[in-house]
């Protein structure tokens, strides 16, 4: 084991805790995109002190970007003494809303009982802090290292990543020859390597009707009733069919090894646009449904879409006056990095040294920013690895364990040593 490197991380435990708490105190809630700039500037200032060249990159023109809520990302780079590969640690700084049910202030960065509490502690500011500590300890242990190290704090992962990694990837930040290996410290347990994720298709279905007075619905055509027919057909035909589809991908948890579809939202009629709290006296002429379809490596995206449109077309043939529109919101193919990829083997070596056992190899049930690294950057040596328990993400009293962060930082530092120095002592 590389004792000098690991002892350096142990000595930084207090700094790791303080850094995590500081990051949590930036309420980077998405939507709408609060406090992105000050959080990115804080990260940039810290890394500048370590000699990194830092850049703040705004995702101009991306969804949600405006002068009040600019999509500000930070990218930092440190070039070693001699040429070599580049390892990039990417973490998202945005968090979901706190919600109700907390027993601590969600943005106070409370430290107690060996944990750091707060919104984003687990997902994924603890992982960001651990990666920074791992890199700083590595640089002190091996100041003459070859290659380069990059660290980024990016935005909007919780809403698709379009203002963050997708934007940066479109500008060449996640492509060779600039970057060779990417580690994303998402919270997927400290002894597991996440190779990728299922595919996703988000779409909005709109049923169409005709407005009329609510007291005479027979003069109109009710779009909400049409949507009811869509939901009934999904329940009778689509959901049972999806439940029978299984994958060979090592998706966790077990229930996600099947195809799934979630009804994310439904909006119909004029009430939402009329006057909040009062009903509209009209027959609704539009009803919109958002679906979240997660699909498997064994499925093709055109078949996934056709399963839905076949039902809609059947209803159009069989149901009087039924008509619809469908709009793609996002589609991402499943991705799975090979187990013999360099970044996988490097992090596996770290897990074996720190935990004295082989890592588990898993696939995430939901997507994260690896999708943009692969589909836009065309860089496939990418994994998710970080501290934290995924089940705690987005929940009240979210926390990350201090020991988990320390151990994950050691794994990341060993992986960095393998990738840049071949694991030399």
Automatic annotation (TrEMBL):
Its cofactor is Co(2+); Zn(2+). Pfam families: M20_dimer (PF07687), Peptidase_M20 (PF01546). InterPro entries: ArgE/DapE, Bact_exopeptidase_dim_dom, Peptidase_M20, Peptidase_M20_dimer, Peptidase_M20A. The keyword Metal-binding applies. Residues 196-318 form the Peptidase M20 dimerisation domain. It comes from the Bacteria. Keywords: Cobalt, Hydrolase, Metal-binding, Zinc. GO terms for molecular function: hydrolase activity; metal ion binding. Belongs to the peptidase M20A family. PANTHER family: ACETYLORNITHINE DEACETYLASE, ARGE_DAPE-RELATED DEACYLASE. This is Succinyl-diaminopimelate desuccinylase.
């Amino acid at each position: 084991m590389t004792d000098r490197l690991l002892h350096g991380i142990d000595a930084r435990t207090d700094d790791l805790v303080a850094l995590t708490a500081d990051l949590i105190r930036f309420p980077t809630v998405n939507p709408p995109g609060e406090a992105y700039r000050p959080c990115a500037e804080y990260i940039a200032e810290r890394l500048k002190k370590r000699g990194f060249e830092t850049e703040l990159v705004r995702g101009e023109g991306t969804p949600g970007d405006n002068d009040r809520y600019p999509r500000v990302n930070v990218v930092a780079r440190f070039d070693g003494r001699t040429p070599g590969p580049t390892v990039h640690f990417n973490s998202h700084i945005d968090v979901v809303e706190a919600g109700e049910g907390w027993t601590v202030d969600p943005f106070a960065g409370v430290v107690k009982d060996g944990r750091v509490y707060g919104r984003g502690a687990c997902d994924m500011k603890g992982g960001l802090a651990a990666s920074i500590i791992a890199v700083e300890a590595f640089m002190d242990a091996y100041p003459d290292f070859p290659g380069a190290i990059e660290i980024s704090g990016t935005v909007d992962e919780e809403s698709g990543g379009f203002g963050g990694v997708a934007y940066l990837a479109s500008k060449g930040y996640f492509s060779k020859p600039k970057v060779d290996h990417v580690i994303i410290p998402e919270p997927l347990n400290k002894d597991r390597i996440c190779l990728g994720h299922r595919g996703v298709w988000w779409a909005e279905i709109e049923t169409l009707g005709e407005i009329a007075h609510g007291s005479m619905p027979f003069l109109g055509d009710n779009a909400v009733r049409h949507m009811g027919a869509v939901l009934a057909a999904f329940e009778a035909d689509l959901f049972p069919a999806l439940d029978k589809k299984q994958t060979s991908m090592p998706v966790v948890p077990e229930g996600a090894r099947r195809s799934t579809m979630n009804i994310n939202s439904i909006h119909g009629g004029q009430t939402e646009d009329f006057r909040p709290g009062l009903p509209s006296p009209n027959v609704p002429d539009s009803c919109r449904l958002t679906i979240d379809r997660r699909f498997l490596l064994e499925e093709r995206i055109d078949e996934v879409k056709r399963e839905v449109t076949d039902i809609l077309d059947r209803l159009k043939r069989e149901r009087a006056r039924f008509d619809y529109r469908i709009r793609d919101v996002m589609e991402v193919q499943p991705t799975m990095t090979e187990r013999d990829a360099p970044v996988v083997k490097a992090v596996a070596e770290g897990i074996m040294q720190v935990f004295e056992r082989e890592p588990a190899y898993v696939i995430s049930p939901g997507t994260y920013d690896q999708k943009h690294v692969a589909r836009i950057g065309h860089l496939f040596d990418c994994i998710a690895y970080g501290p934290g328990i995924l089940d705690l993400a987005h929940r009240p009293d979210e926390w990350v364990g201090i020991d988990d962060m320390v151990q994950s930082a050691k794994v990341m530092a060993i992986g960095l040593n393998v990738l840049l120095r071949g694991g030399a002592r």
